[in-house]
Amino acid sequence: MYKSFLDFFNELEPQFSSVINDTGFPKYNMFSYKDDINKYKVELALAGYSKDDIGIKTIQNKLIIECNSIVKSKEDPNLLIYGNAGISKRAFSKTFEVNEKYSLEVESAEFINGLLSVIVKVNIPEEFKPKEYKIK
């Protein structure tokens, strides 16, 4: 297949290319930083979870955020019947992926008021970094 010159440069950008097997849960936001194009912030809405329920890991070019155990709410002895069980508490795995040439590193993660924020740095090998040349 023919690739244009622009296609080649688009492949060099370390942007997150996909979310693998996205089920739509949990909902997330993704931001890039103006001052560092290789740094991203991923936010996940996790109402009802605690930070102990959540695991974060990187494997090469993938960021994986997951809850492997089904979270059960504490039983209230005064509660007779669930009127509405609209807050979803279930096991999940959310995997974000960048181009396979790069690796990921979690710089920080915090969980405040049901919102998980993860700061991720994309590590670009020297051979893929832009090089500047002086004009004689």
Quick summary of this structure?
Helices cover 6% and strands 40% of the residues. It is mainly beta and 136 residues long.
What does this structure look like?
- By secondary structure, this protein is mostly beta strands.
- It has one domain: Sandwich (Immunoglobulin-like), CATH 2.60.40.
- Helix content is 6%, strand content 40%.
- The chain is built from one helix and eight strands; from the N terminus they run αββββββββ.
- The protein has one helix at 5-12, and strands at 16-20, 28-32, 39-45, 55-59, 62-67, 92-98, 103-112, 115-123.
- Strands 1-6-5-4 form a four-stranded antiparallel β-sheet, with no helix packed on it. The chain has a four-stranded antiparallel β-sheet with strand order 2-3-8-7, with no helix packed on it.
- A hairpin with a 6-residue loop joins strand 2 (28-32) and strand 3.
- Mean pLDDT is 79; it is low at 1-10.
Secondary structure class reads mainly beta
What is the ordering of alpha helices and beta strands? Answer: HEEEEEEEE
How much is the average pLDDT?
Answer: 79
CATH architecture: Sandwich
Helicity, as a percent range: under 10%
Oligomer: single chain
Beta-strand percent range = 35-45%
